[in-house]
Amino acid sequence: MAAPLLTVEDLRVDFPTRKGLVQAVRGISFSLGREKLGIVGESGSGKSMTGRSILRLVSAPGQVTAKRLEFDGIDLQRASEAQMRDIRGQRISMVMQDPKFSLNPVMRVGEQIAEAYRTHQKVPRDEARRRALDMLAAVRIRDPERVYRAYPHEVSGGMGQRIMIAMMLIPDPDLLIADEPTSALDVTVQLQVLAILDDLVTQRGMGLIFISHDLSLVASFCDRVVIMYAGRIMEICDAKNLAAAQHPYTRGLLSCLPKIDGDGSDLPVLRRDPEWLEHGL
Known about the structure:
Helix content: 25-40%
Distance between the termini: 23 Å
Number of helices: 9
Largest sheet: 6 strands, mixed
Oligomer: single chain
Shape: globular
Number of strands: 11
Structural class: alpha/beta
Radius of gyration: 20 Å
Order of helices and strands: EEEHEEEHEHHHHEHEHEEH
């Protein structure tokens, strides 16, 4: 059996405040191979903070600790900042929430993608431009030349998502962390973006951490699902078996989903048990 690409053991993210310690992530553990791993849960469950902590992007006063945080044999906790700059983007990329707003508004789209490539690969500008155009075509943008010359405000939300995916994938990373990359898109564009991610992950043999609120989306797209609540992992299961999940929190989330063939009655309210905070995975 191949060694995991990423190993997380007892990861904690704490924020000291005047009113006491806020525990954003409370000792979670999981591993990731070259597969699609979904992380789902309510707002504030620690999904995004987990992704950011892997890349050491949690700002002060946040404190990140773990018994083990290892990527492809590299101890991410002990890596120098220079090593982390090489890892970010080149080995591990992250698509943030609302990625279109992460683009520089006064730089042309293509120049930003080419810059992401030249940051990690010392190549001439012409080659970086060609690679950027190829990457725009890979994310199914119909007129790469036109979009290359466009500014961020001149493209739609769905195209902005694709541009950010192109920018994160152009260095050819081993792991992509996608933090709700489809949350602001309509259903048709969501499916297009997911198809792009699926094709690229499969073709390149990458690992993917897909962070989302949408259980149905994650169940249909990912290989495994991590369910988080209040900074803890409640359950990890195969995506194809998500409907048969046993934890009451997962069952509660599933029962809150509207159904087309429902009887029109009110959806149930999720009931939370304080004991879940003490008995996560």
